[in-house]
Amino acid sequence: MTHDYRKYLRPEEISRISRLEVQARHIVEGFLSGSHRSPYLGQSVEFAQHREYAPGDDIRRIDWKVWAKTDRYYLKQYEEETNLRCTILVDGSESMQFASGPISKFEYACSLAAALAYLMLRQQDAVGLVTFDQSIRGQVPVSSRKNHLHSILAALAVEEPQQKTGLYDVLFEVARTRSKRGMVMLISDLFVDRDDLFRGLRLLRHRGHDVLIFHVLDDQELDFDYRGTTRFEGLEETGQLVCDPRSLREGYLEAVRRFLAEIRERCSRNVIDYQTIRTSQHLDAALAHYMNHRIGLRKSARK
Predict the structure, then answer these.
(1) pTM for the whole structure
(2) Torsion-angle region of 30 (φ positive above 0: left; ψ -120 to 50: alpha; else: beta)
(3) Looking at the domain assignment, is residue 40 inside a domain?
(4) Do the Cβ atoms of 112 and 188 come closer than 8 Å?
(5) Would you say the C-alpha torsion 253, 254, 255, 261 has a positive or negative sign?
(6) How do residues 166-217 score in pLDDT, each as one tens digit?
(7) In a domain, 42, yes or no
(8) What digits encode the pLDDT tens for the residues 13-54?
């Protein structure tokens, strides 16, 4: 079931949509203008169709013969440039509220989802959104319409992290309802049962979906650089602990190392693309990772 989120929006949510859109445009346009060439360029073997020029497209691909006849700019598209269908899954569970700096994991995840959606729509790909905690909380269907970004931003704007994370049921439902092969991007801190997580991810792979995971973690979750007696308040019903963090740091960091190593190893085993992202990290790194993966898909398709 889908909803028109716009009719439920409060003024502060409308303001958040505007901020997300401005941020997404700024990040993506800056990222693309900083590239030496578009990562979507490539030699194609068979002409398929034209599409109208959009600001930022490479002018070398304009069909000047069409321009001479119509006085409008169109780009040549080729068979290899088939549209991608992508669903972005954003974790809205309570643990995503954590922030040791100016931005929480959830805010970072929303910014990343907005930038990825803007980038894909700009490249004529189709994108949808699923927000979740222990179940699916909101969905925006996959589309490549030019105004589709606003629906995605509106869905992100009404979400606030709450409840525990439960990924298997969410991934099962996504696998069940996405019959056409495409890409599924999961943005989460992955504080879930790992067996359930990978059972769900394998369902997506068995359905033929390409899977990317952006593992979003706060700097302190990775570095544990606390000083003095500290009270830690657990999220998702995990209680409280007052202690000297220096006495725990070595064991904590070893546990984190094992946690990340297990995730990476199991992703590799299941042919799932994985990247750890810090909330202090600029979104360019995540966009570059996605773009490089997209290029790899195109090259594989041509072989």
Answers:
(1) 0.79
(2) alpha
(3) no
(4) no
(5) positive
(6) 899 999 999 999 988 999 999 999 999 999 999 999 999 999 999 999 999 9
(7) no
(8) 778 888 888 889 888 888 877 654 444 433 334 455 666 777
Q: Rounded CA gap, 125 and 154, in Å? A: 19
Q: Which residues of 108-134 are buried (b: 16+ CB within 10 A; e: fewer)?
A: bbbbbbbbbbbbbbbbbbbbbbbbbbb
Euclidean distance between CA atoms 53 and 72, whole angstroms:
8
**Amino acid code (one letter) for 10:** R
Q: 106-140, pLDDT tens digit by residue?
A: 999 999 999 999 999 988 899 999 999 999 999 99
Place of tokens 């019959």: 179
Q: Which residue type, as a one-letter code, is found at position 236?
A: E
Angle between helices 148-157 and 11-33 (to 10 degrees): 120
Distance CA 278, CA 263 (A): 16
**Are 76 and 184 in the same domain?**
no
Token pair 């999220």: residue: 235
Domains of the chain: total: 2
Question: Residues with Cβ < 8 Å from 195, sequence gap 6 or more?
Answer: none
φ, ψ for residue 118 (rounded to 5)?
A: -60, -45
**3-state percent breakdown (helix, strand, coil) of the chain, nearest 5:** 50, 20, 30
Amino acid at 113: A
Give the domain range for residue 125: 5-31+83-302
Nearest to 185 by CA among 110, 90, 93: 90
